[in-house]
Amino acid sequence: MKNSELELSPFKAAFKDSIPALTGYIPIGLSFGIVCQKLAYPWFIAPLISLFIYAGASQFILVSLLLAHSSFWSIVYLTSIVNLRHIFYGFSFLDKFKGHPYSRLYMISALTDESYALLATNPKSYNNQYSFYVSFLCHFYWVFGTIIGVFSYQFLAGYNTEFLVYALTALFLIMAIDGVLSSKYFTPVISGIVCYFISFFLFKKNLLIAVFLYFIIMFIFEWYKSYGKKHVIN
């Protein structure tokens, strides 16, 4: 799409580009709505969680922890570990997300794996309206899918819907692979694979924490190599 077309209709451009997220978020949001209904939560709880927390896998963890009467700090710890990667998502968009402070804050907080994959290597993301609409539409798809799940629970209660949770994983893999191939920047992927296998063989009981620690080290190394070294020299 040409820049003139993007300026005339950033919403249409964002909707077109976010269709892959739509195909993944509706099924996974539907699955979350069904899970909440199975756990006998009031119908409005699932949409509210999707609206205000909007944290993908962490939402499934949250409802399970609430059902198990876990402590407040246990919930904070586990959800923080799972969503630690989002801190680095926000850093990488500080030079792209401009405009009103409130819209900028929303775009950073609304970054998910999928919206990040849509915007990270996309030159359109420098258009503030386009980036806002991508974030907003992805958020809307998630909430809408959750509402569908809540009100369709009585019709789907007799069916096994656990397979729906894999829709998000498949979607992210496809978008991540496409982003890597288009950018031709393979270092983060190779680093992630190496970090996983090192952690798998050395820290099986704390695999998730170890992977994040290795990833943070690699991230700092890459940042220093690309940006930090220049500042040190200057």
From TrEMBL:
Alphabetized UniProt keyword annotations: Cell membrane, Membrane, Transmembrane, Transmembrane helix, Transport
GO BP terms, alphabetized: L-valine transmembrane transport
Cited Pfam families: AzlC (PF03591)
Topology of the protein relative to the lipid bilayer: Multi-pass membrane protein
Superkingdom: Bacteria
Compartments, record wording: Cell membrane
Cited InterPro entries: Brnchd-chn_aa_trnsp_permease (IPR011606)
Listed PANTHER family: INNER MEMBRANE PROTEIN YGAZ
Similarity remark: Belongs to the AzlC family.
Name assigned to this protein: Branched-chain amino acid ABC transporter permease
Species this protein is from: Silvanigrella paludirubra
Lineage: Bacteria, Pseudomonadati, Bdellovibrionota, Oligoflexia, Silvanigrellales
